[in-house]
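Protein in question kept underneath.
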Amino acid sequence: MRSILGKDFTFKDCEEFGASDITGRPPQTFHVAHYHADNSRNGVSATGVNGFNYFCTWKDPGDFNARRPTCSSCNPPPRENIF
């Protein structure tokens, strides 16, 4: 099964975190390994393929960081791969 995460999907203008605190680098654009959206906070906690953690925000539903990957020609995983 092909995943868009890590290859084609990015968030931008995000705060970058190291092991315990904000790195202080300017807002980053990065390729996403995995993420969790919290729509009540208009934010996304994500891990980049580089291993850093990020927090990204948006104001409006149409903003760049409010997008989510979609699939128009996906098939479900084989039955033996479902938990």
